[in-house]
UniProtKB/TrEMBL annotation:
Organism: Sinocyclocheilus grahami
Family matches, as Pfam families: OLF
Secreted among keywords: yes
Lineage: Eukaryota, Metazoa, Chordata, Craniata, Vertebrata
Coiled-coil ranges per UniProt: 61-119
Protein name: Olfactomedin-4-like
Length: 460
């Protein structure tokens, strides 16, 4: 109920006029035949309503979601660690280290459980309190409506109902758009219909020092490396990186235990160091945009050897065709490397294709070579990132601080292009600097303003 309604209520109270003429003055006597309007009561109802919505917001509900998802992931990880420990019980040193990691993990899970317990009991308490307040407000409103002589509130309520129905109608209309098409059985996946999560959400040992970075798992690991995670920070000017950090498991990454650093170069930046955040790891080699060039770099993690292959000479590099949106440019994101079930691709833009996105398969031989290429009509600077699932490229755009949206797809099998996707990604921080799909766990890995985040892709 708004202030203007109070005003209307006051002037619609039936009035009786007494007019008396004495000399030149005209005096009006005003008598209200109804009881006085209990404005205090109304104010109280308004305040209570505001408090109610303040304490029960959808934000707090997603907190609960997030806690549950995080817990699920951690317990799974713990199980895997325990299995690993059992297998390794002959190597004493390894077992001792693993055991202490598992103990830490136990403590963290207990902590999460306690948090969950606190959150659920908070909700229970809130629920009971809100129900009582709601009953109270209902009584007050019934009383207040007695003053609604002109039926202003009734009409207003009717209006609200019609508005709501209209909104609902709009939503239903939107929902009938067909979902993106990935033919069933391709890669054993159905249509991608949703992105849920975050499933994991964490800061790294570097805290908030580096807003640009990348992380994930090797999409085609060597036997024994399946649980390894890699992390690269752009430690120089938010643009350049010169070493790769690896952890043996997700838990050790989250806790910052026992990293192994492999240096591409001892100084930064220099020839062949990393430029821009959108790199990937595949078969124990890192693929990225080489420093100050339009070439693809392949860094062999074992031999530390670097091989390169050049993209077309009119390819945008050095911040010519970066990912962007109206408010922000994601600096030096000219080249985006992605992995899917079939290998590595590089996403870039050229002047001859008008700054629109080009997809090239990177054959991961030594040296790497460019394979099949597809030209799209997606202007690169209107997208904020891309990733590929089963031969379909998806692009995201920035909706607002809380939401990134998958709005575009290009199917490399059929060359079908769509701009009408509306799959939202719930962000924990404002910007996503890195995004990639891991075909091994069907998760999206994001680096978002120094936070490492995963999301689950839902296929029909
Ligand atoms: C949850 O918290 C309540 C008190 O708020 C406590 O009595 C109960 O034992 C807790 N449950 C668990 C599983 O920790
Ligand atoms: C990296 O080096 C190792 C050892 O020489 C080799 O077996 C492997 O094929 C190399 N990887 C790539 C991608 O060239």
């Amino acid at each position: 109920m708004s202030r203007s309604n109070i005003f209307i209520l006051i002037i619609t109270i039936p009035l009786t006029f007494f007019q008396s003429v004495s000399g030149k003055d005209c005096v009006c006597d005003l008598k209200n035949s109804d009881p006085a309007f209990p404005e205090l009561k109304l104010t109280k109802v308004e305040t209570t309503a505001a408090q109610c919505t303040g304490t029960i917001t959808s934000e707090r509900m997603t907190d609960l979601d997030r806690l549950l998802l995080g817990l699920q992931q951690r317990i799974k990880q713990l199980e895997e660690n325990v299995v690993m420990l059992e297998k390794e019980d002959d190597k004493k040193l390894y077992a001792a280290v693993s055991l202490s990691i598992i103990e830490l993990e136990f403590a963290e899970i207990q902590d999460l459980l306690n948090k969950l317990n606190r959150t659920t009991s908070d909700y229970h308490h809130l629920g009971v309190q809100a129900a009582a307040q709601f009953e109270d407000m209902k009584d007050s409103m019934v009383e207040l409506e007695k003053f609604d002589n002109m039926q202003v509130i009734k009409k207003d309520r009717e209006n609200q109902r019609v508005k709501r129905e209209l909104e609902q109608c709009k939503i239903e209309h939107k929902a009938t758009l067909p979902p993106p098409t990935v033919p069933p059985r391709r890669c054993g996946l159905g249509q991608m219909v949703n992105v849920v999560g975050p499933r994991t959400y964490s800061i790294t040992v570097y805290s908030t020092s580096y807003p640009y970075g990348a992380w994930g798992r090797d999409a085609k690991p060597a036997p024994g490396d399946e649980n390894k995670y890699w992390l690269v920070m752009l430690t120089s000017s938010n643009v350049y990186g010169h070493y790769v950090r690896q952890y043996s498991t997700l838990s050790t990454l989250l806790l910052g235990i026992g990293p192994k650093d492999t240096y591409i170069s001892s100084s930064n930046p220099t020839t062949n160091t990393i430029q821009g955040p959108n790199m990937v790891m595949y078969a124990n080699a890192l693929y990225y945009n080489c420093y100050y060039s339009y070439s693809v770099c392949q860094f062999n993690m074992t031999t530390r050897a670097i091989s390169t292959v050049a993209l077309p000479s009119d390819t945008g590099y050095n911040n010519k065709f970066p990912f962007a949106h109206l408010g922000t440019t994601y600096i030096y994101t000219d080249m985006d490397f992605v992995t899917d079930e079939s290998g590595v691709y590089v996403i870039y833009a050229t002047t001859s294709n008008f700054g629109n996105v080009i997809i090239s398969k990177v054959e991961t031989s030594n040296p790497p070579v460019l394979g099949q290429t597809w030209k799209t009509s997606l202007y690169k600077m209107t997208a904020t990132n891309t990733f590929m699932v089963c031969g379909v490229l998806y692009a995201t755009r920035y909706l607002d601080k809380e939401t990134e949206q998958i709005f575009y797809s290009y199917d490399t099998k059929t060359k079908e292009e769509r701009f009408d996707l509306k799959i939202n990604i719930k962000k924990m921080q404002t910007n996503i600097e890195f995004l990639n799909y891991d075909p091994r766990d069907n998760l999206l890995y994001a680096y978002s303003d120094a936070y490492i985040v995963t999301y689950e892709l839902i296929f029909q």
